[in-house]
DNA sequence: GTCCTTCTTTTGAATTCTTCAAATCACGAC
DNA sequence: GTCGTGATTTGAAGAATTCAAAAGAAGGAC
């Protein structure tokens, strides 16, 4: 595993370097798409005194400074990932909330620029694929009519 | 306004026809992208005794049967819309949660089919554009660095 | 038209994720 | 090393949504 320059990342973002923050960054590196709870659990392994509240604070700071990104899959708790340079989207399991990365479906700019922006200042376009993950595919009974929507 | 065949819609979906359900359908027709609370407020105008809980129940039933669709914009409460035949996506205001429809960015199937589905049974692809709506554009101070993501 | 079964609705409370607030603590500029 | 600002802790609050049990109504059968 590539060593993470947590110090440089935090300082570069104008944040103070603290153990909780370094630990959250490392947790995110080790746990892609982790929930706040999962991050807290992982952080607690090395820093047992870090509170869940602190994890929320840190995640908030990291996303605010662009170091991390939050994914909010509908009715499931928010997930977080390190903001990596590459462009990718997400597969979300409607049953268990599992998330997988999808490489960007190449340079189809149309997906980014709505024909009519209704006066919105569009900052970001997000593509999310909903479905059942491998595990839930077998576990779940009803195979709902897959209504594909674009 | 085109009259809504609420009776036919419900029966066609295998649901009993009740006043609360007809009222919710009509509320959705009149209030695109309404929250459960907004639907409840609208329904209460004609049926003051319908509880918020019932609205949640009905919305759940309607989405389950494919009559309605729920949009879950991150940290804002869920919104609902009648499931219309056309394909469109949504502009969401990151500040106030306002939602606008965007016509489908034409037939770019690539947006629909991830290269690697990681074993997922993909049922739906959703595109969401995040930004500031016309009102909030002026109201909000900081114009954050528009990091476009595809 | 009436009855009966099943599905809906109501009422009231609980759950979960997330945020707020005040006091203590520590990073890091000087 | 000192100091000021920013970070963390603790404890509790908040909001959207869901659960559960009892009462009520839809609609098919007769």
UniProtKB/TrEMBL annotation, chains A, B:
It is found in: Cytoplasm. Gene3D superfamilies: 3.30.1490.190, Winged helix-like DNA-binding domain superfamily/Winged helix DNA-binding domain (1.10.10.10). CDD domains: Fur_like (cd07153). Keywords: Cytoplasm, DNA-binding, Iron, Metal-binding, Repressor, Transcription, Transcription regulation, Zinc. Its main location: cytoplasm. The keyword Transcription applies. SUPFAM superfamilies: Winged helix' DNA-binding domain (SSF46785). It comes from the Bacteria. It holds the Pfam family FUR. Belongs to the Fur family. This is Fur family transcriptional regulator.
């Amino acid at each position: 595993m590539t060593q993470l320059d947590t110090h440089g990342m935090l300082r570069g973002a104008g944040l103070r370097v603290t153990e909780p923050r370094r630990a959250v960054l490392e947790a995110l590196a080790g746990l892609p798409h982790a929930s706040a709870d999962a991050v807290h659990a992982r952080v607690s392994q090395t820093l047992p005194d870090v509170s869940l509240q602190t994890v929320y604070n840190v995640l908030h700071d990291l996303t605010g400074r662009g170091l991390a990104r939050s994914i909010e899959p509908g009715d499931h708790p928010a997930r977080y990932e390190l903001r990596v340079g590459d462009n990718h989207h997400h597969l979300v399991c409607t049953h268990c909330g599992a998330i997988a990365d999808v490489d960007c479906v190449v340079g189809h700019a149309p997906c980014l620029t709505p024909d009519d922006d209704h006066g919105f200042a569009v900052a970001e376009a997000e593509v999310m694929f909903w479905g059942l993950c491998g595990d839930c595919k077998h576990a779940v009974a009803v195979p709902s009519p897959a209504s594909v929507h674009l």
